[in-house]
Specification:
Rossmann fold, Transcription Regulator spoIIAA, OB fold (Dihydrolipoamide Acetyltransferase, E2P), 5-stranded parallel beta sheet, 5-stranded mixed barrel, about 35% helix
């Protein structure tokens, strides 16, 4: 039987895209990347390093599995399809604009039904690069994003599909219209679009009925879910979350990254009402910078004091057990030493549990590209700032996690890595997003009450069970 492999790069929402593609192809069978007939590369393009990592994997896959057809999709495929189509081994490039058609394109390649006139019209490559010489792969990518929302069929089944993540992502929103100066996402994913309310509720109910315990709502700009829907369908994210908690049997809902200005009073109130019960006490608010001047140059839609106010409101609602996370960027064009120190001071003042840190990366087609040309931060200075932020992030993470030693906390068991299983332990994630290692072996997808006994060298909570699994 022909088999495929999908390699994921990038964010949680991109991972959800890849999982949806894989679920549509699962009848083919999944293989290791260097033994598969088709290798799907689900790319990211948020930084130059993300582009480089995708190219490196494509070259490695082609070198070790030259017979495989490589299909490239995702943000890099949308931003620079010509570049990828010219790479050796690439059989097709499917941008985000056409990713809903990716499973059918892959199956078409496998069946070798080549004549374009015999294919459905949507499968005719929109690129003019199909030259008679055949030197480049066909491209499906344009700026209309007409086939961009990949409806995920996994949630309709009556059982949990084998091999899936314990805590899968349900992507309910696509695209972004914020136009931050550094961000390429509006170019690679288009404007904000929402999965309809009924479709979301159906998938959540199906997941819960199949025995799922924790579901993560994700999106490119999740807080904007529902604002593009019309008439009676127009909703807010807070309204959707309340419907999920009140009208489904889902044991635990987790929200992925939400912009600071989209944490409405109603959404924060839900964290107070359900946090620690059926809504995970975990909030990720992208920060980028703690300097007002830098945030203005970034065209971010909040100021440092707005951000601090949202954090204070979340802590009042959810309590000190809330795990707060943020994205922080170093070396944005024109960032001075004093502006960077404002960011450091701002981070020190807030109870962050973790930070995702990034050096600025100029992306073609964004205003940040021109800003970088005009006033770049020297690479040495950017690297020094990243080093300082890493040390601060480690300090904040350890301080947050140490407070849970000796306490009880809810967690979900994960698919345990082989090395950990050999030690007779089980991997888990706490309700408030802390990695845990449980003494004893437990199947994945169980909700347990744990007692944390210590913090290991890597920052994971060492735990034992407090009572029987649910």
């Amino acid at each position: 039987m022909p088999g495929f492999h999908i390699e994921h790069f990038g964010c949680r929402a991109a991972r959800a895209d890849g999982e949806a593609i894989a679920s549509n192809l699962r009848a083919m069978g999944e293989h290791e990347p260097f033994a598969a007939d088709v290798v799907i590369v689900n790319t990211c393009s948020v930084t130059a390093e993300a582009d480089r990592a995708a190219r490196a994997f494509i070259r490695r896959a082609h070198r070790r599995n030259p017979a495989a057809m490589i299909v490239v999709t995702g943000c890099y495929a949308q931003r620079a399809p010509d570049e990828l189509a010219a790479m050796a081994g690439v059989a097709a490039v499917v941008g985000n604009s056409h990713k809903a058609l990716a499973p059918e394109i892959v199956r078409t390649l496998m069946q070798k039904t080549a004549p374009a006139e015999r294919q459905p019209r949507e499968l005719v490559p929109v690129s003019a690069l199909l030259a008679a010489s055949g030197e480049r792969a066909p491209i499906w990518a344009d700026d209309r994003f007409a086939h961009s929302f990949l409806e995920d069929s996994r949630w309709a089944g009556t059982h949990l599909p084998p091999g899936e993540q314990t805590r899968p992502n349900l992507k309910i929103q696509e695209g972004c219209g914020n136009r931050c100066t550094f961000c390429v996402i509006p170019l690679t994913r288009g404007p904000s679009r929402s999965l309809p309310h009924a479709a979301v509720m159906g998938r959540v109910k199906g997941f819960a009925a199949a025995g799922g315990k924790e579901l993560v709502l994700s999106g490119i700009n999740l807080g904007r879910w529902g604002r593009d829907l019309e008439g009676a369908e127009r909703r807010t994210l807070a309204g959707l979350v309340r419907d999920i908690l009140e009208k489904t049997d889902l044991p635990r809902l987790r929200l992925s990254s939400i912009e600071p200005m989209d944490w409405s009073e109603e959404l924060i109130a839900l964290m107070g009402e359900y946090g620690g019960k059926r809504l995970a006490r975990h909030a990720h608010l992208p920060l980028q910078s703690g300097s007002d001047a830098v945030l203005r140059r970034m065209h971010r839609r909040y100021r440092p004091w707005h951000y601090a106010d949202k954090v204070e409101a979340l802590l009042r609602a959810a309590g000190p057990d809330l795990t707060l996370g943020a994205d922080v960027m170093a070396g944005f064009p024109g960032e001075t030493d004093s502006e960077f120190e404002e960011t450091v001071a701002f981070i020190r003042a807030l109870p962050f549990g973790y930070l995702h840190l990034f050096p600025f990366s100029a992306r073609p087609g964004t205003p940040g590209w021109a800003l970088h040309a005009e006033s770049p931060v020297p690479q040495e200075a950017a690297e020094e700032r990243m080093t300082a932020l890493r040390a601060l992030a480690a300090e904040k993470m350890a301080a947050h996690r140490r407070q849970f030693a000796g306490r009880q906390i809810e967690a979900i068991t994960l698919h345990t890595p082989a090395e950990l299983a050999r030690r007779g332990s089980t991997a888990a994630l706490t309700e408030n997003f802390l990695p845990a290692e449980i003494s004893g072996r437990f199947a994945a997808n169980q909700l347990l009450r744990l007692r944390a006994t210590a913090l290991d060298a890597d920052g994971a909570l060492m735990c034992e069970t407090a009572h029987d699994p649910r």
